[in-house]
Design brief:
The protein is mainly beta and 114 residues long. Helices cover 4% and strands 55% of the residues. It is built from one helix and ten strands.
């Protein structure tokens, strides 16, 4: 797992095998941690993005761009596939101060709103 420091800060992971759970959520930005957060499944979730994903800031809206060019910005609804991990699997940088309850490793995602 790697922390890409920027604004926003994101966590990325190379291994995406065996993760096929579907998570519909909305992307949000946590100003305290400067990390992106997913809100869905009645909880706040720290996303771990696929390797090659980069942080973006477009007109003051933070988000990510995937290697295939898919961009998701704060406020967008997304459908992500992947799997839940233990909190110990995430870097403390995005966990501290956010009060998040779960960590989700994203294998792929699509956005459904702009």
């Amino acid at each position: 797992m790697t922390l890409i420091d920027g604004d926003p800060r994101i966590l990325v992971r190379r291994d995406r095998s065996g993760m096929e759970a579907l998570l519909p959520a909305t992307l949000h930005y946590d100003t305290r941690s400067r990390c992106l957060v997913l809100r869905g499944d009645n909880q706040n979730i720290i996303p771990i993005w696929p390797s090659g994903t980069n942080p973006v800031n477009r007109a003051g809206r933070r988000g990510v761009e995937s290697p295939d060019g898919t961009t998701v910005l704060e406020g967008n609804d997304i459908k992500a596939t992947g799997g839940f991990l233990s909190r110990q699997d995430a870097a403390a940088d995005c966990l501290s101060g956010t009060g998040q309850t779960a960590v989700f490793a994203i294998a792929s995602f699509v956005t459904s709103s702009g």
